[in-house]
Amino acid sequence: MWIAAHPEVVREVMTHASCRVRPADEAVPAAIVGGSAAEVFGVLVRMNDGEVRHVAPRLVLQRALAGVPGDVVRAAAVRVARDVWSDVRPDGVHAHADAGGAVTRWVNEAPVRTVASLLGFEDAHLPQVAALVGKFVACLSPLSSAQQIGAAHAAAQELLAAFEALCKRSDAGAAMNAAAVAGVAHAVKGGSLLVEVLREAEAAGWRGERAILANLLGLLSQTYEATAGLIGNTLVALQRGAQWQGGGGQRYEAALNLVREVALHNPSVQNTRRFVAEDAYIGGVEVKRGQVILVVLAAGGTPFGHGAHKCPGQTMAEIIAASAVEAMLAEPASTSFARLLQPGRLTWRYRASHNAHIPEFMEAK
Q1: Is residue 243 part of a domain?
Q2: What value does the mean pLDDT of the chain take?
Q3: What is the pLDDT at residue 347?
Q4: Rounded to whole angstroms, how far apart are CA atoms 102 and 85?
Q5: Which site in 15, 99, 173, 228 is 20 to 30 Å from 365, CA atoms measured?
Q6: Does 277 reside within a domain?
């Protein structure tokens, strides 16, 4: 395996025509072939290359994500962050809960529940959606057990069904009909992220219903890991004494600046891989077809990727992370969350993963 760590080489690999996101002979990991998780994985935009399976669908997602106003994202993130903490907090009716575990649950669930809410799921369904996404993401890791992969298949099937039901309830299903007239998505009530995706898919001629639903699930899975890691590593920075300047109306801007610094210096996705499809010279050396390049995003200064596969949800992820952290730390110092986030109260370890850097918290002894 080659390793690309220099920023210039990282960017070269990420834009080189011979470097693909999957091996030529394994579009879907062998461990998940035959189940619903494989159906989802096989059509995920970020797991494909080429105009039809990557470029055009990615543009749909990028435009849809950009179509949700930042103040809408921020308001949802604040509300959901507080709701999640109310569900998991280690005091009051939850006095039996482990404080570090409660913070970890909050880190994991706040961002994915926020995006699920923006997609149009009702508040009562958000905990279940988060739990299912947590089971699904296991299929993305080569460290997962057969039991976890089985649970991921079941979760994928249930989530796809939930998205189908969401489309029907919101009358958005008509926008997926290949014969739908132009502008039908504009008539959908609610104005959710789901509607934005369907509107952009219709405009681009992306008619694959199951592929669209699978990529909505892909948004949630990315949020569950990458955005949760961004929030968690921001809390780590605060535990290490990071200075967070700003008061009154400047608190959010200060939180956003901190989140961006954390993303650059301690990103939640540390590395990725590229698979060489044809012999090529990259970084001044010859690499052969079939070889693998480990791309160290953290060293390359590209925490959200680079080139065609750069994360289309960077802005939304930053807003969600900054809003959630700022909202919770804006609470009075007497609240349980504010007390736990005082430097030295928590310690942490990192979730077992080949590429992610997501902290799990415990109370310091």
Answers
A1: yes
A2: 88
A3: 93
A4: 8
A5: 228
A6: no
pLDDT at 251: 87
What does the DSSP 8-state code read for residue 229?
A: H
| Per-residue pLDDT tens over the stretch 269-298 | 999 999 999 999 999 999 999 999 999 999
Q: Which residues pair with 14 in a beta bridge?
A: none
Per-residue b/e over 203-233, b at no fewer than 16 CB within 10 Å?
Answer: eeebebbebbbbbbbbbbbbbbbbbbbbbbb
Report d(CA 106, CA 92) in Å as an integer.
16
Q: What is the dihedral of CA 201, 321, 69, 330, to 10 degrees?
A: 160
Does 298 reside within a domain? no
Beta bridge partners of 280: 287
CATH assignment at residue 157 = 1.10.630.10
* 287, 280 contact by CB (below 8 A): yes
272-278 contacts, C-beta under 8 A, 24 or more apart: 272/297, 272/305, 272/355, 273/355, 274/13, 274/14, 274/16, 274/19, 274/20, 274/21, 275/19, 275/20, 275/21, 275/22, 275/23, 275/24, 276/18, 276/19, 276/20, 277/18, 277/19, 277/20, 277/24, 278/18
Sorted by sequence, the CB contacts under 8 Å of residue 297 that are 6+ apart come out as 10, 267, 269, 270, 271, 272, 303, 305
| Token pair recorded at residue 94 | 């939850």
End-to-end, the C-alpha distance of the chain in Å comes to 41
Regarding beta strands 2-4 and 292-295, do their DSSP bridges make them parallel or antiparallel, or are they unpaired?
A: parallel
Which residue type is seen at 148?
A: Q
297 assigned to some structural domain: no
* Domain count across the chain: 1
Cα dihedral 276/298/63/152 (nearest 10)? 70
Six-digit token string for 212: 């669209």
Query: What is the domain extent for residue 229?
Result: 34-268+303-363
Pairing outcome for strands 280-282 and 272-276: unpaired
